[in-house]
Amino acid sequence: MSIRNQACIAGIYEHPTRNAKDISLAALHGDVIAGALADAGLGKDDVDGFFCDSDAPGLGALSMLDYLGLSVRHVEASESGGATYLSQVAHAAEAIAAGKMKVAVISMAGRPRADAAAGGVAPRPFPPSTPDLQFELPYGAELVNEYALAAMRHMHDFGTTAEQLAWVKVAASHHAQHNPHAMLPKVVTVEEVLGSPMIADPLHRMDCCIVSDGGGAIVVVSPDIAAGLKRPVVKVLGHGEAVKHQNGGRIDLTFSAAAFSGADAFAEAGIVPSDIDYASIYDSFTITVITQLEDLGFCAKGQGGRFVADGGLISGVGRLPVNTDGGGLCNNHPGYRGGMTKIIEAVRQLRGEAAPQVQVKDCRLALAQAMGGSLGTRHAAATLILERH
Amino acid sequence: MTDRLGDRIPAAPEPTVETVGYWQAADSHRLMIGRCRTCGEAHFYPRARCPRCLSADTVLEQAEGAGTVYSYSIMRRAKVPYAIAYVTLSEGPTMMTNIVGCAADDIRIGMPVSVVFVESDGGHRVPMFEPAVIVAE
Questions:
Q1: B8 and A144: CB-CB below 8 Å?
Q2: Which residues belong to any copy of the ChsH2 rubredoxin-like zinc ribbon domain (chain B) (predicted)?
Q3: Is A278 a catalytic residue?
Q4: Any chain B CB within 8 A of the CB of A136?
Q5: Do A194 and A46 belong together in one domain?
Q6: What are phi and psi of A367, to 5 degrees?
Q7: A134 FRET partner, CA 20 to 30 A, in A182, A220, A248, A288?
Q8: Least CB-CB distance to A249: which of B93, B97, B126?
């Protein structure tokens, strides 16, 4: 059985806040869920499926269902970092195809800025019993220098340059200037990226995504529900998910699990990368985009730097319009998690509701790609392929 | 960046009952890898069950302590800059580590390195690597 054409995305909502000091985590979830349902033209009582991640307050989904007074017959609290929501769209489609539910809400929210300002702890501390961390934390391993390890090896093997990495940020900033909610709406140049402080060689500060508060939600419905809705819906065509890890010490940092999730998604959708009109590619760091573009087959392995250079990702002028909302590098990166906003901008593009300056003409097929965890150690990747209805 | 790397005191490792032997060996200046007695393959980090064949017949084996730098990055956003790295051991597996005992600018991918054992902040010693000394014949 395939999920191709078995479900539609009928509602989306991205929280406008980037600093939620006066909004609780539960209230953020409430805001985005109500927003996505209103966008779909559906009500609370229509919801019979609920999906969240492990950052949602309470045990699994229980406290959020209680808080919102939701009554559902299908529930999933799952965790693959920023890739969670792309997998959950597909899992919702599977459950819809199996007749387990008809209207699912997928919710994510986070408030790391507000928590830090209030004296909170470091993000998502893992318990010491985690088997791998005792072999990493003594070495000062953090997300940024783990991704930097991948970037350094990519440069060594393929001749990728700091200027090429910087072009990913430059393209995001060109898009963000048209997004009134973007946290960093100012256009930047390659020279400005290279002139920003070095954080972990070869990654400068502007090679790194922002940290923001907020969140988003998505409503996934069965085709018969979708047929009765007024707003444009988007069909789920294909999906893939995969995990890549250290493989017992056989480490190759030059590719990601997107190589597997992408191949599965394209096979299920029955299309090839050159068919894609718009792509949301998770941009925790600039290297993340280059690696995933190669792994998804938009260019050959090692050619990602050349692909993104000279405005390659800028809508209207480049080879492939990517992250037209400004992405995690400039717009929004709620709760250190990228996947939700990636799906939302892909749906906007397919509906023709992106900012006019970045809207892709006649956008029919879109791809959303996210990663959770670390490119330098272990991560999950998920790919979604969506089609305008 | 001409400062010599290595002044940073690493956080103490937090062993479990499964890994305490690895860290005790580090205290006596021995680097251990995992070896499966069923499939014969080496792995890192060492663990109770082989990540190649799922056999529970795994043992700690002393590594030579020699390797080459697979990748590295200098963490500049720290009180004392430090070099995180992956080093590929002569036995095969690649492990995360720090490069010490040289200037940050002297590190290269492919550079031969050898193990040293650095005192941690109140815990077991931590295996790190410094540029290999080439002894002239």
A1: no
A2: 23-57
A3: no
A4: yes
A5: no
A6: -125, 140
A7: A288
A8: B93
Give me the residue label for tokens 């307050």: A57
ipTM value greater than 0.90: yes
Is A336 annotated as catalytic? yes
Domain boundaries, chain B: 20-131
Q: Which domain holds residue A62?
A: 8-118+213-235
Residue A88, CA distances (Å) to A278, A291, B48 in order? 21, 23, 33
Q: Among residues A13, A85, A278, A336, which one is catalytic? A: A336
Any chain B CB within 8 A of the CB of A180? no
Tokens of B19: 């890994």
- What's the helix, strand, coil split of chain B in %, to 5? 10, 35, 55
| Record: contact B71-A152, CB cut-off 8 A | yes
Q: Please tell me the pTM assigned to this model.
A: 0.96
**Considering just the CA atoms, what is the radius of gyration of chain A in Å?**
19
Contact A149 B109 (CB under 8 A): no
**Which pLDDT tens digits describe chain A residue by residue (389 residues)?**
799 999 999 999 999 999 999 999 999 999 999 999 999 999 999 999 999 999 999 999 999 999 999 999 999 999 999 999 999 999 999 999 999 999 999 999 999 999 988 876 555 567 878 999 999 999 999 999 999 999 999 999 999 999 999 999 999 999 999 999 999 999 999 999 999 999 999 999 999 999 999 999 999 999 999 999 999 999 999 999 999 999 999 999 999 999 999 999 999 999 999 999 999 999 999 999 999 999 999 999 999 999 999 999 999 999 999 999 999 999 999 999 999 999 999 999 999 999 999 999 999 999 999 999 999 999 999 999 999 98
Name the minimum distance, in Å, from the CA of B107 to any CA of chain A.
12
